[in-house]
Design goal:
The protein has two helices and 39 strands. With about 500 residues, the protein is mainly beta. The longest helix has 10 residues.
């Protein structure tokens, strides 16, 4: 049995989110609201119940109906049933004060969840502009000029979802020309004889081989030829290029992160380099088929001999001091109940709705990014809880689990039922073996959180034992010289 003691998320702690505040206007007493119009203030959404509603206080029930927390803040309102929603992706970054080695994402509607934790570190920079917009143009002397240049290829923008759920990946498609099939950045003034690393996320789109290159002038370069299917590659020094190496690692949804590093010209110090991504389905130069290609997202050029955490850029280089120490993606597809091949192929796909992560390293004051990903549909999360873990003890076999249903089911005189579906809450009864030396500390802990909802983790194996709520009762029985017995009755929030 573990619990996560929640960190309180405030306006100052919520660093960023891609979720709009609410479906409505910020409340202004000088605006006239019609019946049914919505306004929000202090992260609470209200609905006008009358026409001609101007200047009336939001707590006046004759004029306003409180609808609860706004969409952005529903995940923090301690109500599992009210959910924060957004197309494809809910992304939230929180600055924690203290430590948070536990993260709970509950009442989910998603395919996967990504959790990234970081602390301040050495500054680093992505020197490539428009790192996710390979078709972007910059205005030069009053005219648009392509930032990335195509040769023997066309670009399909926003053709696929990125590894992290947003519709932002572009596909590079070879033409039928007998040429190289590539896209190249403009000149980046990073220097030649400095160790640098160019990385990008790639996915097969009819072609399974590609090349990344950092090029100086005069035929000097470092490159890495990669097999996206086999996850292997070969690095090459060209001309005065030196120290070429590279790598490839699987990420998610068919994407791999590929990189090349080295010095494109070890004999010169100050000059610009270009970064190239090529489709090499039939070699460096060949007649394309007009349809094969690779999907690209997240290009990065940086100083160093290995890729660091990706930094998104716009029209100019972007710096970051985030030192990422935890970055994991969790699939919510469940194999529960699949016991044979027939079930595997023909049973419906079950998606879990609760995720609890208990292995985040306990760094002080981390920034934690949570991405709830549901490609092509609405991503939703009912509760997001970050905080410090406390291990209470070993849960005995035989916990009793259930729910309290608040739906209304009434039968008339003829036995016909009227059913009104409402919220429910989890219930659980647990017996936990704890060290006798922890009895006093646990008694103080439970007293401290008697009126504060926490995340209870009965067992890491069963998500049905994850509950966000209160204990209705607890008892500590000092039964043995070295061990005590703790009984807990947990009541979850709706």
């Amino acid at each position: 049995m573990k619990l996560i003691r929640p960190f309180t998320v405030t306006d100052a702690a919520l660093l960023s989110t891609n979720v709009p505040e609410a479906d409505g206007l910020p409340y202004d007493p000088l605006i006239t609201f019609a019946a049914g119009a919505r306004a929000y203030a202090n992260h609470v959404l209200y609905e006008s119940v009358q026409n001609g509603n101007m200047g009336h206080a939001l707590d006046d029930p004759a004029w306003w109906l409180s609808l609860g927390a706004t969409n952005r803040w529903s995940m923090f309102d301690q109500i599992n049933g009210s959910r924060t929603t957004n197309p494809n992706l809910v992304e939230t970054a929180i600055q924690v004060t203290g430590r948070a080695d536990g993260v709970a994402a509950l009442s989910l509607s998603a395919e996967k969840v990504r959790i990234v934790a970081s602390v301040p570190g050495d500054p680093r920079t992505n020197y490539l502009p428009y790192s996710e917009q390979f078709g972007a143009s910059a205005i030069v002397s009053g005219s648009p000029v392509a930032v990335w240049t195509l040769t023997g290829a066309t670009l399909v923008e926003n053709a696929d979802y990125s590894p992290y759920g947003d519709l932002a990946a572009d596909t590079l498609v070879e033409t039928t020309a007998n040429s190289a099939h590539k896209i190249a950045s403009g000149s980046i003034n990073i220097g030649w004889n400095v160790q640098q690393c160019f990385s990008v996320y790639l996915k097969q789109a009819g072609a399974s081989t590609a090349q990344l290159a950092i090029k100086a002038s005069g035929g000097n370069f470092v490159s890495f030829d990669v097999d996206l299917a086999a996850l292997t590659g070969v690095a090459t020094n060209g001309g005065n290029g030196a120290g070429a190496s590279g790598g490839v690692e699987a990420v998610a949804d068919g994407f791999v992160r590929v990189w090349v590093d080295g010095m494109p010209d070890s004999t010169a110090s100050t000059a610009g380099v270009t970064c190239e991504i090529s489709v090499t389905r039939a070699g460096a130069v060949y007649t394309g088929d007009g349809g094969s290609g690779i999907t690209m997202w997240g290009a990065q050029l940086e100083i160093g001999d290995a890729p660091t955490a990706y930094i998104e850029t716009g029209s100019s280089p972007q710096a970051s001091t985030d030192d990422v120490f935890f970055d994991e993606i969790y699939s919510l597809v469940s194999a529960d109940g699949i016991t044979n091949w027939y079930d595997y192929f023909f049973n419906e796909v079950v998606i879990g709705d609760d995720l609890v992560v208990t292995n985040v390293p306990p760094y002080a004051d981390p920034k934690i990014l949570v991405q709830v990903i549901s490609k092509g549909s609405t991503a939703a999360i009912g509760s997001l809880v970050l905080g410090q873990l406390r291990d209470i003890g070993a849960t005995e076999l035989g916990p009793r689990l259930g729910i309290q249903d608040y739906s209304r089911k009434e039968a008339d005189d003829f036995g016909n039922y009227t059913v009104v579906e409402r919220a429910f809450s989890k219930r659980g009864n647990f017996t936990v073996i704890v060290p006798s030396t922890s009895v006093d500390a646990l008694a103080r802990l439970f007293s401290q959180y008697r009126a504060t909802p926490v995340v209870w983790i009965g067992s890491d194996t069963y998500s049905s034992t994850f509950m966000f709520g209160f204990y209705r009762s607890f008892e500590l029985e000092i039964a043995y010289p070295t061990e005590a017995i703790c009984t807990l009755e947990i009541e979850g929030l709706t």
